[in-house]
Amino acid sequence: MNEHARDEADDLYARPADAVEEAPRTLLGALGRVGPGLIVAAAIVGTGELIATTGLGAKAGFALLWLILASCVVKVFVQVELGRYAITRGKTTLAAFDDLPGPRLGASWVCWLWLFMMLATQAQIGAMEGVVGQAAHMAFPSASDAMAGAIGSVVPSWGEFFRSREEYLWAAITTVAATALLLSGGYRRIEKITTVMVAAVTLFTVASVAVLQWTRFRFGWSEVASGFTFALPAGAVALAFSAFGITGVGAAELVAYPYWCIEKGYARSVGPRLAGGDDAWVGRARGWTRVMQLDAWVSMVVFTVATIAFYLLGAAVLHPQGLDPKGADMLPTLATMYLGPLEGTPLAPLRGGVRVAFLLGAWAVLFKTLYVATAANSRMTVDFLNVAGVWRPADDAARNRAVKVFCVVYPAIALSLYYAIREPQGLVKAGGMAQGLMLPLIAGATIYLGRRDADPRVGPSKLSGALTWFAFLAITAVAGYSVYDLARSMLG
User: Fold this and answer.
1) Is 158 helix (H, G, I), strand (E, B) or coil?
2) Which domain CATH number covers 100?
């Protein structure tokens, strides 16, 4: 094997002709090849759910349950079409967006808007790091005091500073741990770690909702039904739009999903498209597209169940008490969501264990999202530099080294944002607004690329095409209403 062939064999983004593979033909076989969607689910079941979704439930009660469900389902149609384009064309999302018409500055204007959105979402990453710090401090307060004391023995003023902001130390430790983990492994490690964490967090949250039925916070079908009257309560519009941008597949995850599909090997298994037609290629493309669709919808079920569970906890427990999880006391407020219902019940003796489980769960929820989001953003940034002509990696090894550089840089930037602002819910809302505004553009670009480069042999069915259009219109309507409401509030 010559050097070029070896490079292609190691490069997950290459599609050498000798790497093609037939797609599994059975459901069990196809389930064995899912993975990219679970990585996306790990990013989804995180800050948005723990902070924004519970906050929305706390403010609006059950009234916006319909919006949460719609947010989880409707954007998957766009996700599937982006995955289809990557598999059949062998292009990353930003490489595809770079082909869009319009102004260019090295890269397409859409790629630049993605960059600005991605930088804005570092606010969400900062919120994750801060809340992880709060969770660790609540779990190990004596260790926090010991660390602050040790620092104070060297620099007294610093010791006093960290005693009043003890989550800062834990946030920094968590950031270093996530960075080290990112530097030590590739796609397969990311998939394995996130799959385990998603399963654990989802099961714990669903169990917490089930336990409510034996407490004073129990709710019935009438409350659930009230969440499907399609109401949009006054005062919760901005938070609702932010939740629509964050919950379900957000703009960041939509752009990232094709990268994970490519690294999983879907496009590589399809192989390069040959001129003049190739029935074998068409068969492989259809087969691996079906696997990708299964992957996307399986992950949708997982993150929808988890997201609705978080919302129900906020609506059933926090809303009646007028509690809103925000600021430095955000995590203690969220802790009451799990511990409060147990008071005065036969389950009260379990409060200590539930508190520990909640803190570990909060750490897992946010850590895995920090881990996955940073991994995705780093890959996409390197791709942006490539399509913009700023820096083109000579080979796969050079690309991987650049990815690792950004795996260090981005968590540090996000941590600095938390240190500067120290308001997790505000940081999450800022990132959510940026994603919400980008969603219509991504959906529209997906439809445009699908129509411009249509290949009826491997294209979507008429039903899938219609549902993708519906998703685009729904996303655009929500974004448009939010911009209108924001402008109205700013103009008084």
Assistant:
1) helix
2) 1.20.1740
